[in-house]
Design brief:
Layout lengths: L5 E5 L11 H9 L4 E8 L5 E3 L6 H4 L10 H5 L19 H8 L5 E6 L9 H12 L5 E5 L2 H10 L4 E6 L6 H7 L4 E4 L6 H9 L3 E2 L7 H10 L3 E4 L2 H8 L5
Parallel strand pairs: 1-2, 1-9, 2-4, 4-5, 5-6, 6-7, 7-8
Antiparallel strand pairs: 2-3
Helix pairs in contact: 4-5
Length: about 250
């Protein structure tokens, strides 16, 4: 039996590849992911680049903020060696590269706008323009911890789905999401119960919890009826979803 839960590879197959690199994205497809989650930031000269941290240090060794470096400077950085020498020379990709990769697939692409700490004014319009140019409006879901940004995305592009990222403490979050047209909830994995998933489903809002890396947690969330699971190990989730019994 093949389950319909979306298998979102968190920053690509980041458990076995350097996160947010083309190697990680390609590996996710090989391992059975049906979705890819990634983080979008912007260079000093306005290119949309895929990296989680606001600082470049952790994955490239560069001390600058992402927004302080040009696209050309960022392209020279090694984003693979920190993970394993086998990935030496992996670069930080630009959004268009990932859009090109998924364009010939049915992968659901979850683009997290990293505009909570740094505002990146106008990022919403820029990301949506890139998605529309690639013709991927129906395959993209935009998420963010900045819920004002999600409301702006929905205003600009009502046809593109949005997901509310949060950690805990939202009362009836499906009602909150509906206030500004969000179609999904992206909570931390502990902020999920079967009752809440059912209530959200009745309201037409999906649950896609993060970051779920243990088999038992995956089984529990599948049983709870979530729409998708965001994981560093898409191969593990794929194995569970294709098994006859969870």
């Amino acid at each position: 039996m093949i389950n319909t839960v979306i298998n979102f590879a968190h920053r690509g197959a980041s458990g076995t590849s350097p996160e947010n690199t083309m190697a990680a994205f390609r590996r996710a497809l090989e391992l059975g992911a049906t979705g890819i989650e990634t983080d979008v930031q912007r260079t000093r000269d306005g290119r949309l680049v895929l990296i989680h941290d606001e600082y470049l240090m952790r994955t490239t060794g560069d001390e600058r903020l992402v927004e302080e470096a040009t696209a050309e400077e960022i392209r020279e950085l090694d984003a693979g060696s920190w993970f394993d020498e086998a990935f030496k020379g992996e670069r930080l990709p630009f959004l268009e590269e990932l859009l090109d990769l998924v364009a010939s697939t049915d992968i659901i692409l979850n683009l997290e706008l990293k505009n909570s700490i740094l505002p990146y004014s106008g990022m919403e319009e820029q990301v949506i323009a890139a998605v529309r140019k690639a013709g991927l409006e129906e395959q993209v879901l935009i998420s963010s911890f900045n819920h004002y940004s999600l409301a702006e995305c929905k205003r600009i592009a009502p046809e593109i789905q949005t997901g509310v990222l949060y950690v805990e403490g939202l009362y009836q979050p499906w009602e909150y999401a509906r206030m500004f047209g969000a179609t999904a909830l992206h909570p931390y994995k502990e902020a999920v119960t079967p009752e809440w998933v059912a209530a959200a489903a009745e309201a037409g809002v999906a649950y896609n919890p993060f970051t779920v890396n243990e088999a038992e947690e995956m089984k529990s969330l599948i049983a709870a009826g979530v729409n998708g699971i965001i994981t560093d190990y898409p191969e593990l989730l794929h194995e569970l979803l294709t098994a006859s019994v969870f």
